[in-house]
Design brief:
The protein is an alpha+beta fold. It contains 6 helices and 6 strands, in the order αββββαββαααα. Strand 5 and strand 6 form a beta hairpin.
């Protein structure tokens, strides 16, 4: 088993999206994360000695899987019953593929109704919904950045930040010096 075979298999499952995040990791989602999708598998493409793949095992299979040599609690995600494989052959290829399909199914069942309803749309309608959501999120981010910049400017003008206090002190010193003349 290797990353390319896993990728080919996962991309054939219904409603699966793929992103590259956190350096060089392939992250597989049930549904696009923009519309409420949730990740279910992370494949590490770096050969950095870390786990090669992590996935949602669910509470029923979690402890059973940890009994296998080369299967460990997934860093950062063990609390939600994710496991990680230290090497590709820690489990048989068929068992791993079955577990990944189960991880996708388990994650799909946990999606909110709103997200499942979006995933039930035609591919074109879903793509349109994703694009609209991305536009909305970009607009919100721009508004938040503008509001943050305005708030920082207002604080500086009011002398509530160190830079603002220094600027006000400098203005007072200039005024005082000009009065003395």
């Amino acid at each position: 088993m290797d990353a390319e075979r896993i990728r080919d298999f996962l991309r054939k499952l219904p409603h699966v999206q793929e992103t590259v995040q956190w350096g060089n990791n392939l992250v597989f989602w049930v549904g696009d994360k923009v519309v409420g999708g949730k990740m279910f598998t992370v494949v590490n493409l770096d050969e950095d000695g870390q786990a090669v793949i992590s996935f949602s095992a669910g509470p029923e299979r979690y402890h059973e899987l940890l009994e296998n040599e080369g299967v460990i609690p997934a860093p950062y995600l063990a609390r939600i019953h994710w496991v990680a494989l230290e090497r590709w052959h820690a489990l048989s290829a068929n068992e791993l593929l079955d577990l990944l399909k189960d991880a996708r199914d388990l994650t799909y069942r946990k999606l909110p109704k709103r997200t499942k309803d979006l995933l039930a749309l035609s591919p074109a309608a879903l793509q349109e919904a994703v694009q609209e959501r991305r536009k909305l999120l970009a607009a919100r981010a721009n508004e938040q950045a503008a509001a943050k910049a305005a708030a920082k400017y207002a604080q500086e003008a009011a002398g509530k930040t160190e830079a603002g206090r220094k600027a006000q002190a400098a203005k007072k010193a200039v005024k005082k010096a000009s009065r003395r003349r």
